[in-house]
Design goal:
By secondary structure, this protein is an all-alpha fold. About 65% of the residues lie in helices and about 5% in strands. The chain contains 13 helices and 2 strands; from the N terminus they run H-H-H-H-H-H-H-H-H-H-H-E-H-E-H. The chain has a two-stranded antiparallel ribbon. The longest helix is centred in the last third of the chain and has 31 residues. The chain starts with a helix and ends with a helix.
C-alpha cells in the first residue's frame, strides 16, 4: 500500500476534505483538488501523434514519450521553467491547505498523496532530461541543463525545507492515525521528517542562505564532474591489429569494433581481419570484459 496506490484512488476519495469537518471550499483546497482532476491523455493517442511539448507530456501509464523527446534540446529550458512554475503553484496550494488544518485533520490522503504527485511529476521530467544528456550528449544540451538546473535545485530545496509540510508530517507521526498506518507508510512519513531535518528545515536567515548556496554549488560541481567523466569516456579509444588480441570476442562485438574503426579512418577494416577500435561505451567495453581471452 504505497503512495502510488493511493494516487490511483478517485479524486473524491483521495482529497476527501469532508472528513476534516470543514465546510465550504477555499482557493487553496480547490487548487489541491485540481492536482488529480486533469486526466492523462491516452498513451496510444499520444504515441501516434506528435506532441507539442513531449518533455511535459503525461500518459495514462505515466511514461515519457521517448520516441519524441530525443530532439527537444531547444525545449528543455522553456518547458522546465513552465513545469517549475506549475509545481510552485501546486506547492503553494498544498502548503496553504495543510497549513490551514488542525494537526488532527492532517492525513495521508491530504498531505502525502498530493505531495507525491508533485515530486513524481518533477522527477519523471527531470530524469528524461538527464538521461538524454547521458546518452545524446551535446554542448547545446549541456548549456540548457546548466541554465535550468539552479531553478530545479531551488524548487527541490523549497520542497524539503517547507515548514508547513514538515509540521504536517509531524502531526501524522504524533497523532492517533499513526498506529493505523501500515509499516511502509510509517517509514515514508519518518523518512520525510528525517530528510527535511537533514535538508535544513530548521535553519533560518543567513544559515539557511548559506546552506542553500552550498547545495547549489554541489549541484554545479556534480554536473561538471559527470561531464568530465563523459568527456573522458568518449575520448578513449583502443586500436587492436592483432587477431589473437580479440580472441574470444563474439562476432557482434567485432563487427561493432570494425564499424568504429571505419568511422575513425580505417576504411579497409573488416570484422574478421580488423583493425578494430574499442571504446569505453558499454556496447564496446562490456563484451571485452566478458569474453576476451
Amino acid at each position: 500500500q504505497g503512495i502510488r496506490q493511493c494516487a490511483a484512488r478517485s479524486q473524491r476519495e483521495v482529497f476527501g476534505f469532508a472528513a476534516t469537518g470543514k465546510s465550504g471550499a477555499t482557493p487553496a483546497r480547490d487548487a489541491v483538488r485540481a492536482l488529480a482532476s486533469k486526466p492523462a491523455r491516452s498513451f496510444a493517442a499520444m504515441a501516434s501523434s506528435v506532441v507539442e511539448k513531449p518533455l511535459l507530456a503525461e500518459t495514462e501509464l505515466g511514461t515519457p514519450l521517448y520516441d519524441q523527446v530525443k530532439n527537444t534540446t531547444d525545449r528543455v529550458v522553456p518547458d522546465l521553467k513552465e513545469l517549475l512554475a506549475q509545481l510552485n503553484g501546486q506547492l503553494d496550494a498544498l502548503e496553504g491547505s495543510v497549513g490551514g488544518l488542525a494537526p488532527a485533520e492532517v492525513t495521508w490522503e491530504n498531505l502525502v498523496v498530493p505531495l507525491e504527485k508533485i515530486v513524481d511529476r518533477l522527477g519523471k521530467t527531470w530524469s528524461v532530461v538527464t538521461h538524454l544528456k547521458a546518452v545524446c550528449d551535446t554542448e547545446a544540451l549541456r548549456k540548457a541543463v546548466e541554465e535550468v538546473q539552479p531553478e530545479q535545485v531551488a524548487f527541490s530545496l523549497r520542497l524539503s525545507q517547507s515548514e508547513a509540510l514538515y509540521r504536517g508530517f509531524k502531526a501524522i507521526k504524533e497523532g492517533a492515525q499513526w498506529a493505523t498506518l501500515s509499516e511502509p507508510r510509517q517509514r515514508i512519513v519518518a523518512e520525510n521528517l528525517r530528510d527535511a531535518e537533514l535538508a535544513g528545515v530548521a535553519l533560518q536567515g543567513e544559515e539557511k542562505e548559506k546552506f542553500n548556496a552550498i547545495q547549489q554549488e554541489l549541484s554545479k560541481l556534480s554536473t561538471k564532474f559527470s561531464n568530465n567523466v563523459l568527456d573522458g569516456t568518449k575520448a578513449y579509444v583502443k586500436t587492436i591489429t592483432a587477431k589473437e588480441d580479440v580472441d574470444g570476442l563474439p562476432a557482434s562485438a567485432l563487427a561493432l569494433a570494425s564499424q568504429t574503426a571505419k568511422s575513425k579512418g580505417h576504411e579497409n577494416s573488416t570484422a574478421e581481419e580488423g583493425p578494430w577500435i574499442f571504446t569505453l561505451d558499454i556496447p564496446s567495453y562490456l563484451p571485452v570484459m566478458l569474453h576476451a581471452k
